[in-house]
Design brief:
CATH superfamily of the largest domain: P-loop containing nucleotide triphosphate hydrolases
Strand content: 25-35%
CATH architecture of the largest domain: 3-Layer(aba) Sandwich
Largest sheet: 6 strands, mixed
Structural class: alpha/beta
CATH topology of the largest domain: Rossmann fold
Length: 310
């Protein structure tokens, strides 16, 4: 990753006029940059404005105000160049059942004006682990394969930026892992990735930086590790000999979660409580501690803190 800017979003807003005469502000003058070669996470609850932004970049929604610049091309002045620079992998699976993956990719490449001699269909099929299904009809493809095919379709014109909208939604754990491996491999080859996901563990694992959007506004934007460091919440796990239910909390600030293998987890705010105090309270409940494991907060804690009550 270098510091060149692949995508610049500056004061971008979108307001919809409603039938009752009122208006709905889907995006409220948001500003951020995506650096060349990074994996950038765009997270937020349903209705936060993520889809509106993706549709603006894809040319299906017209922004109300602001600047969108992709690889030096202004969206208003050079819409074709912007669209050629971006590949979008949609959340919904929508593929023609009468074509094979290879045929579908060739058709898609033709729609982008890619000359036959310049097409890399076989390479894309290999990258997305679909080579052995190149000549199979869609009805024989699993849900995970169809998701990988959506990724392949977005790559036919070799865009330097890929936008992945919930790329692993609805697939099982094994297929999700395969998709994530595909994403990592593409990024290693220099493709800039913008990822939206509801699986916060994915974002934590993949993303160099993350923007959290809520009610059309950017409420946080930083390196992933810096976002995690801002949260005061920590977790501590105890393995106990005489495992038993001692209620759902130790006090007003210490919530308990019961785990497998005689373990309990306690989430605490390090500005209010400390480990010594927690150990004392657990022993006070009659539990005998065998082992202690500490954990830092995860991205889910950050997400909840930044999006609740906003």
């Amino acid at each position: 990753m270098n510091n060149s800017i692949a995508l610049e979003i500056k004061n971008v807003g979108k307001t919809y006029k409603l039938q009752d005469g009122n208006s709905l502000k889907a995006l409220d003058d948001i500003t951020f940059n995506v650096k060349q070669g990074e994996i950038f996470g765009l997270l937020g609850p349903n209705g936060a404005g993520k889809s509106t932004l993706i549709n603006i970049l894809g040319g299906t929604v017209i922004k109300s105000n602001g600047l969108v610049n992709v690889w030096g091309f202004d969206l208003d002045l050079n819409p074709r160049q912007v669209r050629a620079s971006i590949g979008i992998v949609p959340q919904e699976i929508n593929v023609d059942p009468f074509f094979t993956p290879k045929k579908l990719l060739d058709i898609q490449a033709g729609m982008y004006g890619v000359a036959k001699k310049d097409r890399i269909t076989d390479k894309i099929l290999e990258l997305t682990s679909l080579t052995d299904k190149a000549d199979s009809y869609m009805r024989s493809l699993s849900g995970g394969m169809k998701r990988r095919l959506l990724l392949a379709k977005a790559m036919v014109h070799q865009p330097p930026i890929l936008i992945l909208d919930e790329p692993t939604a609805g697939v099982d754990v094994d297929l999700r892992q395969k998709l994530l491996e595909n994403v990592k491999e593409l990024n290693k080859q220099g493709v800039t990735i913008i990822l939206t996901t509801h699986y916060l563990q994915e974002a934590e694992e993949l993303c160099d930086r993350i923007a959290i959007i809520n009610h059309g506004k950017i409420v946080a934007l930083d390196k992933t590790e810096n976002l995690l460091a801002e949260i005061h919440l920590k977790k501590i796990k105890f393995k106990v000999k005489n495992f038993k239910n001692i209620g759902d909390k130790l006090d007003d600030h210490l919530k308990i979660k019961y785990l497998k293998n005689n373990q309990i987890s306690v989430k605490y705010d390090k500005t209010i409580s400390n480990i010594e105090n927690i150990i004392f309270k657990i022993k006070e409940k009659g539990l005998e501690i065998e082992d202690i494991m500490t954990e830092d907060a995860d991205l889910e804690d950050v997400f909840i803190k930044l999006t609740k009550n906003l």
